[in-house]
Amino acid sequence: MKRTLLLFAAALLFSLQTYAQTGVAINTTGDDPANSAMLDVSSTTKGLLIPRMTEAQRTAIALPAKGLLVYQTETPEGFYYHDGTSWNHLSSATGTAPGQMQYWNGTAWVTVAAGKGGQILIFTNGSPLWVYEYDIINHLNIGDYYQGGTIAYFLQSGDPGYDANVRHGLIAASTDQNTIRWNNGTNIITGATATAIGTGNENTDTIVAKQGAGNYAAKLCADLVSGGYSDWYLPSKDELNKLYENRMIIGGFANHHYYWSSSEDNISYAWCQYFINGTQYAFNKNSVLMFRAVRAF
Q1: Quick one: which of 105, 119, 170, 104 has its CA closest to 143?
Q2: Least confident piece of the model among 22-26, 68-72, 95-99, 103-107
Q3: Residue 171 belongs to what H/E stretch?
Q4: Model's pTM, two decimal places?
Q5: How far apart are alpha carbons 197 and 232 in whole angstroms?
Q6: Is the peptide bond before 160 cis (omega within 30 degrees of 0)?
């Protein structure tokens, strides 16, 4: 009898060792373990119970292996894993003060300190930041969303309207306004010949005043309501060039297309820009081209 038991035990041990080379399956269906798993546990009525212990018991574990997982039953309760150097609380979020938040920076979870009363949370340069509303613009960059559209340009020293103490610039509408003619069906002199940064709005008003109601680029920009703002206009020649220079950051521009500016050249022609190489041309006002509305801030 004793000999029979010894032979059975040996056979069982051999069987377990053979399974251990390919993986072990624990289930009620008799299915083999998945090829990539050393241990494959399947159940629809039960779970996997990890060793539970107090903090003192956890920290007393001698030489914990990297990846070791336990459940701590004392506050702060939860799963803990060892990273080879220290124990870490495994949770969706951890913090040490009310109002803290976490964000993923592409490598690890980073804790953001709680904001102060009156501050709002913005996302800039790849991370969240608490700021006061009046100070938002000082933390934004070209390509960021602001006041109804995408920041397209910040005024620089020498630009009309530049203020070293207050940031100003151009905001591009989020999308193109499709294709349209510059004129209202007939070529007339509008007098909207200004080309400098800061003159697009005046150009647009002048064009609409001269050409009246209709379906043309300047009128569609003037009538645009987007992002809660209604002060959009067709950019001047120089303003359009800033959109071209930052087109990849602003985004949404059509490939292989010309874009209208609000700058008139003469009775029959107005300035546009080719958004492949940046060349600016005077095209016939009857031409059907793309256009993108802007507004100033």
Answers
A1: 170
A2: 95-99
A3: strand 169-172
A4: 0.67
A5: 15
A6: no
